[in-house]
Recover the amino acids of this structure.
Protein backbone atom coordinates (compact mmCIF):
# COMPACT_ATOMS: atom_id res chain seq x y z
CA UNK A 1 0.00 0.00 0.00
CA UNK A 2 1.36 3.43 -0.88
CA UNK A 3 1.07 5.83 2.06
CA UNK A 4 -0.98 8.90 1.30
CA UNK A 5 -1.69 11.81 3.57
CA UNK A 6 -5.47 11.81 3.85
CA UNK A 7 -7.10 15.17 3.14
CA UNK A 8 -9.89 14.16 5.51
CA UNK A 9 -8.51 11.94 8.25
CA UNK A 10 -11.25 10.77 10.58
CA UNK A 11 -14.02 11.05 8.00
CA UNK A 12 -15.96 7.81 7.70
CA UNK A 13 -19.38 6.81 6.47
CA UNK A 14 -21.96 9.51 7.12
CA UNK A 15 -24.88 9.08 9.50
CA UNK A 16 -27.21 9.23 6.48
CA UNK A 17 -25.68 6.08 5.01
CA UNK A 18 -25.62 4.41 8.43
CA UNK A 19 -29.28 5.18 9.15
CA UNK A 20 -30.45 4.22 5.66
CA UNK A 21 -28.64 0.88 5.95
CA UNK A 22 -30.11 0.27 9.42
CA UNK A 23 -33.54 1.16 8.02
CA UNK A 24 -33.10 -1.42 5.22
CA UNK A 25 -31.73 -4.08 7.61
CA UNK A 26 -34.69 -3.64 9.98
CA UNK A 27 -37.31 -3.12 7.29
CA UNK A 28 -38.02 0.25 8.88
CA UNK A 29 -39.87 3.24 7.45
CA UNK A 30 -37.11 5.55 6.33
CA UNK A 31 -37.72 9.13 7.44
CA UNK A 32 -33.99 9.70 7.77
CA UNK A 33 -32.53 10.79 4.43
CA UNK A 34 -33.98 13.87 2.72
CA UNK A 35 -35.67 12.57 -0.40
CA UNK A 36 -39.30 12.08 -1.48
CA UNK A 37 -40.78 8.57 -1.61
CA UNK A 38 -43.13 9.74 -4.39
CA UNK A 39 -42.25 10.30 -8.01
CA UNK A 40 -41.67 13.53 -9.89
CA UNK A 41 -44.26 14.79 -12.38
CA UNK A 42 -44.51 12.39 -15.40
CA UNK A 43 -44.74 15.47 -17.62
CA UNK A 44 -41.21 16.40 -16.56
CA UNK A 45 -39.98 12.90 -17.40
CA UNK A 46 -41.70 13.19 -20.81
CA UNK A 47 -39.91 16.46 -21.51
CA UNK A 48 -36.52 14.91 -20.70
CA UNK A 49 -37.29 11.80 -22.80
CA UNK A 50 -38.44 14.04 -25.64
CA UNK A 51 -35.13 15.94 -25.49
CA UNK A 52 -33.21 12.64 -25.71
CA UNK A 53 -35.34 11.47 -28.65
CA UNK A 54 -34.78 14.81 -30.35
CA UNK A 55 -31.03 14.25 -30.25
CA UNK A 56 -29.95 16.49 -27.35
CA UNK A 57 -27.43 13.91 -26.21
CA UNK A 58 -24.05 15.62 -26.53
CA UNK A 59 -22.18 18.03 -24.26
CA UNK A 60 -24.10 21.06 -23.11
CA UNK A 61 -22.35 24.46 -23.06
CA UNK A 62 -19.99 24.72 -20.08
CA UNK A 63 -22.23 27.10 -18.12
CA UNK A 64 -25.44 25.21 -18.97
CA UNK A 65 -27.99 25.39 -21.78
CA UNK A 66 -29.16 28.90 -22.58
CA UNK A 67 -32.81 27.75 -22.32
CA UNK A 68 -32.36 26.73 -18.69
CA UNK A 69 -30.26 29.76 -17.75
CA UNK A 70 -32.93 32.02 -19.24
CA UNK A 71 -35.68 30.31 -17.23
CA UNK A 72 -33.62 30.68 -14.03
CA UNK A 73 -32.94 34.36 -14.78
CA UNK A 74 -36.67 34.99 -15.26
CA UNK A 75 -37.59 33.03 -12.11
CA UNK A 76 -34.98 34.85 -10.02
CA UNK A 77 -35.99 38.29 -11.23
CA UNK A 78 -39.71 37.73 -10.79
CA UNK A 79 -39.23 36.18 -7.33
CA UNK A 80 -36.55 38.46 -5.86
CA UNK A 81 -36.62 41.57 -8.03
CA UNK A 82 -32.90 41.65 -8.87
CA UNK A 83 -31.61 40.38 -12.19
CA UNK A 84 -28.82 37.89 -12.86
CA UNK A 85 -27.31 37.90 -16.34
CA UNK A 86 -27.72 34.39 -17.81
CA UNK A 87 -24.57 34.87 -19.88
CA UNK A 88 -22.23 35.66 -17.03
CA UNK A 89 -23.93 35.15 -13.67
CA UNK A 90 -25.72 31.77 -13.79
CA UNK A 91 -24.08 28.33 -14.06
CA UNK A 92 -25.85 24.96 -14.11
CA UNK A 93 -24.24 22.39 -11.81
CA UNK A 94 -24.47 18.76 -10.97
CA UNK A 95 -26.67 19.40 -7.92
CA UNK A 96 -26.37 21.82 -5.03
CA UNK A 97 -23.45 19.88 -3.55
CA UNK A 98 -21.26 20.46 -6.60
CA UNK A 99 -22.18 24.14 -6.60
CA UNK A 100 -21.10 24.36 -2.94
CA UNK A 101 -17.85 22.52 -3.65
CA UNK A 102 -17.03 24.67 -6.65
CA UNK A 103 -17.79 27.98 -4.91
CA UNK A 104 -15.52 26.96 -2.03
CA UNK A 105 -12.76 25.60 -4.29
CA UNK A 106 -12.81 28.85 -6.26
CA UNK A 107 -12.33 31.07 -3.22
CA UNK A 108 -10.88 29.31 -0.17
CA UNK A 109 -7.12 29.20 0.27
CA UNK A 110 -5.02 27.60 3.01
CA UNK A 111 -5.62 29.36 6.32
CA UNK A 112 -8.86 31.09 5.28
CA UNK A 113 -11.57 30.92 7.91
CA UNK A 114 -15.17 30.10 7.09
CA UNK A 115 -18.00 30.68 9.56
CA UNK A 116 -20.78 28.10 9.48
CA UNK A 117 -23.97 27.88 11.53
CA UNK A 118 -24.52 24.54 13.18
CA UNK A 119 -26.45 22.30 13.01
CA UNK A 120 -25.11 22.46 9.45
CA UNK A 121 -25.57 20.43 6.29
CA UNK A 122 -22.81 17.86 6.28
CA UNK A 123 -20.73 18.77 3.21
CA UNK A 124 -19.63 22.28 4.27
CA UNK A 125 -17.01 21.39 6.86
CA UNK A 126 -15.17 18.56 5.03
CA UNK A 127 -15.06 20.60 1.83
CA UNK A 128 -13.57 23.62 3.59
CA UNK A 129 -11.01 21.44 5.36
CA UNK A 130 -10.03 19.57 2.20
CA UNK A 131 -9.13 22.95 0.68
CA UNK A 132 -6.93 23.88 3.63
CA UNK A 133 -9.52 26.24 5.12
CA UNK A 134 -10.46 26.45 8.78
CA UNK A 135 -14.04 25.92 9.90
CA UNK A 136 -15.37 28.31 12.54
CA UNK A 137 -18.63 26.78 13.72
CA UNK A 138 -21.25 28.91 15.44
CA UNK A 139 -23.49 26.58 17.41
CA UNK A 140 -27.22 27.28 17.48
CA UNK A 141 -29.36 25.66 20.15
CA UNK A 142 -32.75 23.98 20.31
CA UNK A 143 -35.58 24.76 20.50
CA UNK A 144 -35.58 27.87 18.27
CA UNK A 145 -32.00 27.96 16.92
CA UNK A 146 -31.98 31.78 16.95
CA UNK A 147 -28.75 33.51 15.86
CA UNK A 148 -27.11 35.77 18.47
CA UNK A 149 -25.28 38.10 16.09
CA UNK A 150 -23.28 39.73 18.90
CA UNK A 151 -21.75 36.35 19.59
CA UNK A 152 -21.24 35.65 15.87
CA UNK A 153 -19.21 38.86 15.69
CA UNK A 154 -16.70 37.33 18.10
CA UNK A 155 -15.83 34.65 15.56
CA UNK A 156 -14.63 37.23 13.05
CA UNK A 157 -10.88 37.64 12.51
CA UNK A 158 -8.58 39.08 9.87
CA UNK A 159 -8.64 35.64 8.25
CA UNK A 160 -12.44 35.41 7.91
CA UNK A 161 -13.05 34.76 4.24
CA UNK A 162 -16.60 33.58 4.07
CA UNK A 163 -19.86 32.98 5.91
CA UNK A 164 -22.07 30.07 4.89
CA UNK A 165 -25.79 30.50 5.40
CA UNK A 166 -28.59 28.04 4.80
CA UNK A 167 -32.20 29.20 4.81
CA UNK A 168 -34.56 27.39 5.11
CA UNK A 169 -32.10 25.42 7.17
CA UNK A 170 -31.51 21.70 7.05
CA UNK A 171 -32.01 20.17 9.63
CA UNK A 172 -33.86 22.75 11.78
CA UNK A 173 -36.38 24.24 9.34
CA UNK A 174 -35.35 27.69 10.59
CA UNK A 175 -35.56 30.61 8.16
CA UNK A 176 -33.60 33.85 8.07
CA UNK A 177 -35.65 36.87 9.11
CA UNK A 178 -35.31 40.58 8.30
CA UNK A 179 -33.34 41.24 11.50
CA UNK A 180 -30.84 38.49 10.55
CA UNK A 181 -30.39 40.11 7.15
CA UNK A 182 -29.92 43.57 8.71
CA UNK A 183 -27.24 42.15 11.05
CA UNK A 184 -25.54 40.37 8.19
CA UNK A 185 -25.42 43.55 6.14
CA UNK A 186 -23.98 45.43 9.12
CA UNK A 187 -21.36 42.76 9.84
CA UNK A 188 -20.10 42.44 6.28
CA UNK A 189 -20.26 46.11 5.23
CA UNK A 190 -16.78 47.47 4.34
CA UNK A 191 -15.25 43.99 4.53
CA UNK A 192 -14.06 41.53 1.86
CA UNK A 193 -16.08 38.70 3.36
CA UNK A 194 -17.89 36.46 0.89
CA UNK A 195 -21.19 34.70 1.48
CA UNK A 196 -22.15 31.23 0.33
CA UNK A 197 -25.92 31.06 0.63
CA UNK A 198 -27.35 27.57 0.40
CA UNK A 199 -30.94 28.20 -0.69
CA UNK A 200 -31.86 24.73 -1.94
CA UNK A 201 -35.17 24.88 0.00
CA UNK A 202 -36.05 28.42 -1.17
CA UNK A 203 -39.51 27.39 -2.41
CA UNK A 204 -40.35 25.18 0.59
CA UNK A 205 -41.37 27.82 3.10
CA UNK A 206 -44.54 27.92 5.16
CA UNK A 207 -47.30 30.03 6.72
CA UNK A 208 -47.08 32.74 4.05
CA UNK A 209 -43.49 33.67 5.01
CA UNK A 210 -41.28 34.97 2.21
CA UNK A 211 -37.89 33.43 1.56
CA UNK A 212 -35.24 36.11 2.06
CA UNK A 213 -32.63 35.51 -0.61
CA UNK A 214 -29.20 37.11 -0.83
CA UNK A 215 -30.34 37.91 -4.39
CA UNK A 216 -32.71 40.62 -3.20
CA UNK A 217 -30.30 42.78 -1.18
CA UNK A 218 -27.82 44.60 -3.45
CA UNK A 219 -25.12 44.80 -0.75
CA UNK A 220 -25.32 41.05 -0.09
CA UNK A 221 -25.81 40.04 -3.72
CA UNK A 222 -22.42 41.58 -4.55
CA UNK A 223 -20.58 39.21 -2.20
CA UNK A 224 -22.70 36.06 -2.54
CA UNK A 225 -22.72 32.73 -4.27
CA UNK A 226 -26.30 31.40 -4.15
CA UNK A 227 -26.80 27.67 -4.48
CA UNK A 228 -30.02 25.99 -5.65
CA UNK A 229 -31.07 22.40 -6.36
CA UNK A 230 -33.54 21.06 -8.91
CA UNK A 231 -33.54 17.84 -6.90
CA UNK A 232 -35.46 19.62 -4.15
CA UNK A 233 -37.55 21.74 -6.51
CA UNK A 234 -38.74 18.90 -8.75
CA UNK A 235 -38.88 15.89 -6.39
CA UNK A 236 -35.96 14.45 -8.35
CA UNK A 237 -33.01 14.27 -5.96
CA UNK A 238 -31.45 11.46 -8.03
CA UNK A 239 -31.01 13.71 -11.04
CA UNK A 240 -28.33 15.77 -9.25
CA UNK A 241 -29.05 18.96 -11.11
CA UNK A 242 -28.73 22.43 -9.60
CA UNK A 243 -27.27 25.85 -10.23
CA UNK A 244 -25.26 28.71 -8.83
CA UNK A 245 -25.95 32.45 -9.05
CA UNK A 246 -23.18 34.97 -8.44
CA UNK A 247 -22.13 38.42 -9.66
CA UNK A 248 -19.95 38.13 -12.77
CA UNK A 249 -16.60 38.71 -11.03
CA UNK A 250 -17.27 35.77 -8.69
CA UNK A 251 -18.87 33.62 -11.37
CA UNK A 252 -15.76 34.02 -13.52
CA UNK A 253 -13.73 32.27 -10.79
CA UNK A 254 -16.47 29.69 -10.19
CA UNK A 255 -16.43 28.71 -13.87
CA UNK A 256 -12.65 28.30 -13.90
CA UNK A 257 -13.05 25.45 -11.42
CA UNK A 258 -16.28 24.14 -12.95
CA UNK A 259 -14.89 23.77 -16.45
CA UNK A 260 -12.00 21.55 -15.39
CA UNK A 261 -13.96 19.52 -12.89
CA UNK A 262 -17.44 18.86 -14.27
CA UNK A 263 -17.15 20.85 -17.51
CA UNK A 264 -20.85 20.57 -18.30
CA UNK A 265 -23.99 18.95 -16.97
CA UNK A 266 -26.49 16.44 -18.39
CA UNK A 267 -27.96 17.98 -21.55
CA UNK A 268 -31.42 16.36 -21.98
CA UNK A 269 -32.31 17.02 -18.35
CA UNK A 270 -31.46 20.70 -18.75
CA UNK A 271 -33.66 20.93 -21.85
CA UNK A 272 -36.52 19.10 -20.10
CA UNK A 273 -36.28 21.12 -16.88
CA UNK A 274 -36.22 24.42 -18.81
CA UNK A 275 -39.44 23.50 -20.62
CA UNK A 276 -41.08 22.31 -17.40
CA UNK A 277 -40.17 25.39 -15.35
CA UNK A 278 -41.34 27.83 -17.99
CA UNK A 279 -44.68 27.46 -16.16
CA UNK A 280 -44.11 29.35 -12.85
CA UNK A 281 -46.93 27.60 -10.94
CA UNK A 282 -44.75 24.48 -11.00
CA UNK A 283 -42.40 26.01 -8.44
CA UNK A 284 -44.78 28.50 -6.82
CA UNK A 285 -47.11 25.70 -5.65
CA UNK A 286 -44.36 23.82 -3.84
CA UNK A 287 -44.82 25.69 -0.55
CA UNK A 288 -48.52 24.70 -0.29
CA UNK A 289 -47.77 21.15 -1.32
CA UNK A 290 -45.22 20.67 1.46
CA UNK A 291 -47.14 22.74 4.00
CA UNK A 292 -49.94 20.18 3.77
CA UNK A 293 -47.44 17.42 4.48
CA UNK A 294 -45.89 19.36 7.36
CA UNK A 295 -49.31 20.06 8.89
CA UNK A 296 -50.40 16.45 8.56
CA UNK A 297 -47.16 15.12 10.04
CA UNK A 298 -47.22 17.57 12.95
CA UNK A 299 -50.88 16.73 13.68
CA UNK A 300 -50.12 13.00 13.65
CA UNK A 301 -47.09 13.50 15.91
CA UNK A 302 -49.22 15.18 18.60
CA UNK A 303 -50.42 11.63 19.39
CA UNK A 304 -46.85 10.68 20.36
CA UNK A 305 -44.69 11.69 23.34
CA UNK A 306 -42.36 13.77 21.15
CA UNK A 307 -42.21 17.55 21.52
CA UNK A 308 -42.36 19.33 18.19
CA UNK A 309 -39.85 22.06 17.38
CA UNK A 310 -40.87 24.88 15.01
CA UNK A 311 -40.65 24.15 11.28
CA UNK A 312 -40.86 27.23 9.04
CA UNK A 313 -39.37 25.72 5.90
CA UNK A 314 -37.51 22.75 4.31
CA UNK A 315 -38.99 19.26 4.54
CA UNK A 316 -37.64 18.35 7.95
CA UNK A 317 -39.41 18.22 11.28
CA UNK A 318 -37.28 18.14 14.42
CA UNK A 319 -38.48 16.75 17.75
CA UNK A 320 -37.19 16.42 21.30
CA UNK A 321 -37.97 13.39 23.46
CA UNK A 322 -37.45 14.26 27.13
CA UNK A 323 -40.80 12.60 28.01
CA UNK A 324 -39.48 9.34 26.54
CA UNK A 325 -36.00 9.07 28.04
CA UNK A 326 -32.55 10.57 28.29
CA UNK A 327 -30.63 8.46 25.82
CA UNK A 328 -28.22 10.33 23.57
CA UNK A 329 -29.85 11.32 20.30
CA UNK A 330 -27.76 8.72 18.44
CA UNK A 331 -28.82 5.95 20.84
CA UNK A 332 -32.42 7.13 20.56
CA UNK A 333 -32.31 7.07 16.74
CA UNK A 334 -30.83 3.56 16.78
CA UNK A 335 -33.47 2.35 19.23
CA UNK A 336 -36.23 3.90 17.10
CA UNK A 337 -35.09 2.09 14.00
CA UNK A 338 -34.32 -1.26 15.66
CA UNK A 339 -37.17 -1.47 18.16
CA UNK A 340 -39.92 0.59 16.51
CA UNK A 341 -39.10 0.43 12.80
CA UNK A 342 -38.74 4.15 12.02
CA UNK A 343 -35.49 5.74 10.86
CA UNK A 344 -34.57 9.33 11.78
CA UNK A 345 -31.35 11.33 11.99
CA UNK A 346 -29.81 12.41 15.32
CA UNK A 347 -29.20 16.16 15.00
CA UNK A 348 -25.86 15.90 16.86
CA UNK A 349 -24.51 14.57 13.53
CA UNK A 350 -24.81 18.12 12.18
CA UNK A 351 -22.37 19.53 14.74
CA UNK A 352 -18.59 19.07 14.42
CA UNK A 353 -18.44 18.49 18.18
CA UNK A 354 -21.53 16.23 18.04
CA UNK A 355 -23.37 18.59 20.39
CA UNK A 356 -26.42 16.71 21.61
CA UNK A 357 -29.59 18.66 22.48
CA UNK A 358 -31.60 15.41 22.34
CA UNK A 359 -33.15 16.28 18.99
CA UNK A 360 -34.13 13.95 16.14
CA UNK A 361 -34.87 14.98 12.56
CA UNK A 362 -37.62 13.35 10.50
CA UNK A 363 -38.08 13.96 6.76
CA UNK A 364 -41.74 14.50 5.83
CA UNK A 365 -41.27 14.52 2.04
CA UNK A 366 -43.20 11.27 2.03
CA UNK A 367 -46.58 9.92 0.89
CA UNK A 368 -49.44 10.41 3.34
CA UNK A 369 -49.60 6.66 4.00
CA UNK A 370 -45.86 6.54 4.79
CA UNK A 371 -46.24 9.32 7.35
CA UNK A 372 -49.32 7.65 8.86
CA UNK A 373 -47.63 4.24 9.12
CA UNK A 374 -44.53 5.81 10.68
CA UNK A 375 -46.54 7.61 13.34
CA UNK A 376 -48.59 4.45 14.07
CA UNK A 377 -45.24 2.98 15.14
CA UNK A 378 -44.06 6.06 16.97
CA UNK A 379 -47.15 6.26 19.22
CA UNK A 380 -45.98 3.00 20.79
CA UNK A 381 -43.01 4.76 22.37
C1 LIG B 1 -29.03 22.19 2.83
C2 LIG B 1 -28.68 21.36 1.65
N1 LIG B 1 -27.80 21.83 0.77
C3 LIG B 1 -27.46 21.16 -0.33
C4 LIG B 1 -28.00 19.90 -0.58
C5 LIG B 1 -27.55 19.16 -1.79
O1 LIG B 1 -28.36 19.27 -2.88
P1 LIG B 1 -28.15 18.31 -4.14
O2 LIG B 1 -28.82 17.01 -3.82
O3 LIG B 1 -28.78 19.03 -5.27
O4 LIG B 1 -26.68 18.13 -4.32
C6 LIG B 1 -28.91 19.35 0.32
C7 LIG B 1 -29.46 18.01 0.11
O5 LIG B 1 -30.01 17.38 0.98
C8 LIG B 1 -29.27 20.11 1.46
O6 LIG B 1 -30.14 19.64 2.36
Amino acid sequence: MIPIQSKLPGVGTTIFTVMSKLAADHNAINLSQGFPDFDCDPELVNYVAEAMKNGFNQYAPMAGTMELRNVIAAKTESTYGLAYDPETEITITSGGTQAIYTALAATINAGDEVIIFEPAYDCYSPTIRSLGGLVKPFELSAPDYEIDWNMVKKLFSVNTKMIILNSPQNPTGRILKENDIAELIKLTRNTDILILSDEVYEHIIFDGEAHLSMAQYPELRERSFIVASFGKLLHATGWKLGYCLAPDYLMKEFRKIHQFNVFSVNTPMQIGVAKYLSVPSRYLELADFFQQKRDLFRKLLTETKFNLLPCNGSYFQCVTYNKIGDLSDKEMAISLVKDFGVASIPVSAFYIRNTDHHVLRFCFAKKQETLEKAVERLVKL
Notes: The pocket of pyridoxal-5'-phosphate is lined by residues 34, 95-97, 121, 166, 170, 198, 200, 229, 231, 237, 240, 242 (CB under 6 Å).
